[in-house]
Amino acid sequence: MRMGTRSWARAAASASWWFALGLLVPASAAAQSATAPYPEEAAAEAPAGAPPPGGGVASEATEEGPAAPGEVPEEAEDDDRFRAFYLEASAGYSWINLGAIRNDNLVPDLMQIRSSGYAFGAGFGLWIKFITLGLQAEIARHDGFDFGTAVLDLGIRLPTPFLEPYIRAGLGFAWLFNPAGGLFEDASGIVWEGEQAIRGVVVDVGLGFDFIVNELVAIGVGADASLFNVRRAGASGADVLSPTDLTLEEDGDSIGVQVSALVQLSLNF
Q1: CATH number of the domain bearing residue 238
Q2: What DSSP character marks residue 74?
Q3: Rounded CA gap, 184 and 116, in Å?
Q4: Residue 154 falls within a domain, yes or no?
Q5: What pTM was computed for the model?
């Protein structure tokens, strides 16, 4: 009897414990659901960039957010402009020495072979990414004569959004024309009026930079240095110009230099 009474007591205690546990579990779950925020409230309270409730990955708009004030968009930083060809006009000042390296019967040694004057130029050509290939022409109005060059040159430019440095070099033709002011004048004041042309070849090197106003217009400054060799054919029957002993009947030859400083306006298409 004692054993039976104890067994019944233990069974009753165990049943009471399981009954109490069954009441506590639903009550705890109900309390948690009552205090948990709705999904909309959780999304509103979550810090920027945090993953949404229940896991997952935040959207791109949440991760990136709006651009900071003053920040340049990535698209605006891209300076890959497409340019097919260009036109250029320039003006400035030029210095020349006709016999800087050699003067062999081209002009009288006592005459003005060093001179300066205003220069005007033009150019056009093609763009091949950061390389230019084009024709540059320049006319310099020196004291006593005019001097012209026409050069096929190859240029390399460093494309930047605002300032574009460049260097170019080329080979072409040079000619001296409109001689006046005693260039071929003898002691009696008679000027040689022969029709023989004075022309030859020139090597030109230029450098400078352009300020990019917009995709179409650029304004810049530059300097060109030219090394030339010009020749004059002898004039049959021409007299010797005294007192310089320049024999116009014989051929003349000269190697000289010219340097020009220019301001230029460019249009890019």
Answers
A1: 2.40.160.20
A2: H
A3: 18
A4: yes
A5: 0.66
Residue 44 one-letter amino acid: A
Q: Which residues pair with 208 in a beta bridge?
A: 166, 222
What gap in Å lies between CA 259 and CA 100, rounded to an integer?
12
Residues 168 and 259 in one domain: yes
Q: Which of 156, 200, 151 is nearest to 176 (CA)?
A: 200
Asked whether residue 61 is domain-assigned, the answer is no
Q: Which domain holds residue 235?
A: 84-268
Query: Which amino acid, one-letter code, is at 190?
Result: I
What is the per-residue pLDDT across 86-132, written as a single tens digit (0 to 9) for each? Answer: 999 999 999 999 889 988 888 766 455 788 999 999 999 999 989 99
Which tokens sit at 171? 């080979």
Q: Are residues 94 and 184 in the same domain?
A: yes
- Sign of the C-alpha dihedral computed for residues 32, 35, 41 and 47 taken in this order: negative
Tell me which residue of 80, 267, 67 sits closest to 161, measured CA to CA: 80
71 belongs to a structural domain: no
Instruction: Give the C-alpha distances (Å, rounded to integers) separating 232 from 23, 47, 103, 144, 229.
Output: 121, 86, 11, 17, 10
Cα separation of 47 and 28, whole Å? 28
Burial of 121 (0-12, 13-18, 19+ CB in 10 A): buried
Residues 6 or more apart whose CB falls under 8 angstroms from that of 34 comprise none
- Provide CB contacts within 8 A for 231, sequence distance 6+: 106, 198, 199, 200, 251, 252, 253, 254
Q: In sequence order, which ranges of the chain are alpha helices (DSSP H)?
A: 2-35, 39-45, 60-64, 74-77
Number of domains in the chain: 2
Give mean pLDDT, residues 125-144.
Answer: 93
92 and 159 belong to one structural domain: yes
Count CB-CB contacts under 10 A for residue 173: 16
- For residue 43, tell me if it sits in a domain: no
Element (H, E) at 146: strand 145-157
